[in-house]
Structure to design on (66 residues):
């Protein structure tokens, strides 16, 4: 690698709104995020299947699924 053309690679702290912190390495020292794997509904298992106007039933009926 050529000298003096690459950015500094430092320890970085990623902070989520929920208070969870993760330490990694990056070109930025502090990174703030709104949602992380600790509080995201997909990863916490709190996701819900929202059936808006019977779309799931309509799909199953259309393709003859049980």
């Amino acid at each position: 690698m050529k000298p003096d053309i690459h950015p500094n690679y430092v320890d970085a702290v990623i902070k989520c709104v929920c208070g969870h912190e993760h330490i990694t390495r990056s070109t930025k020292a502090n990174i703030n995020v709104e949602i992380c794997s600790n509080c995201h509904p997909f990863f916490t298992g709190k996701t819900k299947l929202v059936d808006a106007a019977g779309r799931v039933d309509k799909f199953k009926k259309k393709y003859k699924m049980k």
About this structure: The chain has a mean pLDDT of 83.
